[in-house]
Write a structure and sequence with these properties.
182 residues, mainly alpha
Length: 182
Amino acid sequence: MEAIRETNDKMGIREYFETLMDIMRTPVRYFERVADEPGSRRALIFLMISALFYCSVSMAYFFENSLSMGMVMMLNAILMPAFGAVITFILMGMTGRDKAGFGRIFNIYAYASGAVMVVSWIPGLAIIMEPVRAVLICVGLHKALGVSKTRAVLLILLTAVVMLLFFWTAAPMVMELKQLFQ
């Protein structure tokens, strides 16, 4: 007899905390369960709630309620997981035979980043939580997409290198643009 799993796009406060606790307690089981989750709405809402909490707390405690800094942090909190998912999607397409949809990769990044964001605002924990996020993404790639453990680790390392190279090469252009608008 086949178990019927209902897909629930609803993400209220209760569902948010249940998702957060599931990811942190048993990431393997969680990513196995959401492997076939249709769409990215639930993952995006989870990421946005975590980003809102992260930015609110950070603004209140560290940036003296600066709205502009809060907006930059909010954009960063939402766009960086998406950017990482794009790079991983491209790398998976370049390095493998199996094709995973972008939505599934984005969901892994959104859930992993959202779970880590809740505690990474605490001073000193951000540097510790980045490897935790990488491990969560590796677990997600392995369990939700069926990627081998070695390939998942290599994809994460390559994604990090490509992102670092991107920002390293974009920095001079940003400085030029900054001088242009002054």
